[in-house]
Specification:
Layout lengths: L2 E3 L6 E3 L1 E4 L13 H13 L4 E3 L9 H8 L9 E6 L7 H14 L5 E9 L1 H9 L2 H10 L3 E8 L3 H9 L5 E5 L10 H10 L3 E5 L13 H7 L8 H10 L6 E4 L4 H10 L10 H17 L19 H13 L3 H12 L19 H5 L6 H12 L4 H11 L4
Parallel strand pairs: 3-4, 3-10, 4-5, 5-6, 6-7, 7-8, 8-9, 9-10
Antiparallel strand pairs: 1-2
Helix pairs in contact: 1-2, 6-7, 8-11, 12-13, 12-15, 13-16
Length: 399
């Protein structure tokens, strides 16, 4: 495992961090605790020393899970990160209430890296007025948190002013081969590093979109590389190639993926990609931009939908329609997966949307969700849709 130091804190952090937003789950959607704990501890035993969670992950179940996973001496082996749910703050006292509850959930007396969560410009303005700077300073002084940071999902024009608004120790931004100019982007990465902030990267694989169902046109480009790597390794190496990056979070929930990521993290030095390799990645980026219809990362901040729409899955299938070379097959999979045929459940189609707009306000990618759902309906629920639903139910033996 390679490590990089945060100049403001002096901590040497593993370049690979364990993100606890996409833990393995059981059929009912609950965390597969036995498997998840083994995964977290395996990663720690192999050098990972940064574990990240948050109040809303897994509908509130992630923090208590992490508390249990870090029992038996594992808490002492890692720097633990969690986040203040900034959108739930109504008054200054709420900040202490949430932090104290998180300490209890996580079974610890301090948080090593504490973030003000999911900031955009307007939300920062609100929590700043409510006294978040005072809260962070006092929480550091009394030892409940060691380092203060923020995670960012806003427009690039707001990043620098938030970075300048408090004496932050670190920040967390979305960054991958498709997001050089999105949100904080490369400019934000470099600005944060210039101030000595540690930079934690989220969504390095764009919610798995860069590795799951890789389009044939993209795979053809990867196959042209003299050095053969998986799409995941290429994407991770590209992020780690930036010396300004401290830690890359991976929402690891598969044992094979954990082993692969650990292997890459043993040799992903900054500035190690050749110019030819970087040009290859740029070609992949351009091809993805041609193919993808919606920039959803599957973070699920939009969920649950009050009308029952499975928004991330709708968007995943919508992208698959254009990225896979099998439109009829993808239309069938949409009918099967969203119709409750593959797993027992009620329909979750895009057409259930009633345009309430709740999801639009919650989306960190600033996707106009209701509008895109209309396109999903048009292209995936058109002629033959009811027949495909019936066929899917028959294929999966449901009435």
């Amino acid at each position: 495992m390679l490590y990089r130091k945060i100049s403001k804190t002096g901590d040497e952090l593993s370049i690979l961090g364990f993100g606890c937003m996409r833990l393995p789950t059981k059929a009912d959607g609950s965390i597969d605790e036995e498997r998840g704990i083994k995964q977290v501890r395996y990663a720690i035993d192999h050098g990972v020393n940064y574990v990240d969670t948050a109040w809303p992950y897994h509908m509130g179940a992630s923090e208590p899970f992490v508390g249990r996973a870090l029992a038996d001496g594992y808490r002492k082996k890692v720097k633990l990160a969690t986040k203040l749910p900034s959108w739930l703050i109504e008054k200054r006292e709420d900040m202490d209430k949430f932090l104290n509850a998180q300490l209890e959930k996580l079974k610890t007396d301090h948080i090593d890296y504490y973030l003000v969560h999911a900031l955009v410009g307007d939300l920062w303005d609100e929590v700043e007025k409510l006294g978040v700077a005072d809260f962070l300073t006092k929480a550091k002084a009394d030892g409940r948190i060691r380092n203060a940071g923020f995670s960012f999902h806003g427009a690039g024009t707001d990043f620098n002013r938030i970075a300048d608004a408090y004496d932050w120790d670190f920040c967390q931004i979305q960054y991958n081969i498709l997001d050089e100019k999105n949100q904080a982007g490369t400019a934000g990465l470099e600005y944060a590093a210039s101030k000595g902030l540690g930079v934690i990267i989220m969504e390095p694989l764009r919610g798995g979109n860069l590795t799951r169902n890789v389009p044939p046109a993209v795979r053809t480009i990867w196959d042209q590389a003299p050095v053969k790597r998986t799409p995941a390794e290429w994407a991770l190496r590209w992020v780690w190639n930036h010396p300004e990056v401290t830690v890359v979070l991976s929402g690891m929930n598969d044992e094979m993926h954990i082993r692969e990521n650990l292997k890459v993290a043993d040799r992903a030095y900054p500035n190690s990609l050749t110019e030819a390799e970087q040009q290859l990645v740029k070609r992949v980026e351009n091809k993805y931009r041609e193919l993808m219809k919606v920039g959803c990362t599957g973070c699920r901040y939009c969920m649950p939908c009050p009308s029952g729409v499975n928004i991330p899955l709708c968007f995943e299938e919508y992208n698959n329609l254009y990225m896979a070379d099998n439109p009829d097959g993808e239309k069938f999979m949409y009918a099967a997966r969203l119709g409750g045929a593959v797993a027992l459940g009620t329909p979750e189609f895009a057409s259930l949307c009633v345009q309430c707009g709740e999801c639009r306000e919650k989306c960190p990618q600033h996707i106009d969700v209701p509008v895109v759902l209309e396109s999903v309906v048009e292209e995936l629920e058109g002629p033959g849709f009811e027949e495909r639903v019936a066929m899917a139910r028959q294929a999966f033996k449901q009435t």
